[in-house]
């Protein structure tokens, strides 16, 4: 089940925090709870992605994107992700999640997130390709930034993110069925 109570708590906490610039970092704190574990008593990889949600949504709130989505009746969807898992997270480990808008292209926002253990080790790192949608499909990022009333240029995406995005564009859709 989706952790709605955690989300509501994190959103309430974010409302009390100062607003962020579009490319600033939101830091959130989480604890690996018993229902977050897999069979090996580690943070489940799917739950890791959900905890990243709990960092992205308050980031959108603090940067003004959340209000824009409500006003325009737009949606926010994840169009792709690449995740690197490196260190074990076990029950009751505390995590600090860093979330920031990395940059954009014509169609997508690229959001970088990382989880840090209390010993200073990074347990995982992810980049999400997010799309803003309306009833007609994807809203271009030029239109989004115009609605945000900013002409702040996008930082150049790191080369590896550009290559990943290019690879995603080459990937066939729908995938071939295997029997």
Automatic annotation (TrEMBL):
The lineage of its organism: Bacteria, Pseudomonadati, Pseudomonadota, Alphaproteobacteria, Rhodobacterales. CDD domains: 4HBT. Gene3D superfamilies: Hotdog Thioesterase. This is Thioesterase superfamily protein. It comes from the Bacteria.
């Amino acid at each position: 089940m989706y952790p709605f109570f955690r989300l509501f708590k994190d959103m309430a906490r974010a409302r009390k925090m100062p607003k962020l610039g579009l490319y600033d970092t939101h830091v959130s704190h989480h604890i690996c709870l018993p229902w977050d574990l897999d069979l090996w008593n580690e943070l489940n990889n799917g739950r890791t992605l959900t905890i990243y949600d709990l960092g992205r949504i308050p980031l959108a709130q603090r940067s003004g994107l959340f209000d824009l989505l409500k006003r325009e009746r737009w949606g926010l969807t994840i169009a792709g992700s690449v995740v690197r898992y490196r260190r074990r997270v076990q029950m009751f480990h505390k995590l600090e999640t860093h979330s920031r808008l990395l940059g954009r292209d014509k169609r997508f926002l690229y959001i970088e997130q990382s989880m840090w253990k209390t010993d200073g080790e990074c347990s995982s790192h992810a980049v999400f390709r997010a799309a803003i949608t309306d009833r007609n499909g994807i809203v271009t990022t030029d239109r989004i930034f115009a609605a945000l009333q900013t002409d702040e240029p996008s930082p150049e995406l790191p080369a590896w993110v550009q290559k990943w995005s290019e690879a995603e564009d080459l990937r066939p859709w729908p995938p071939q069925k295997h029997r």
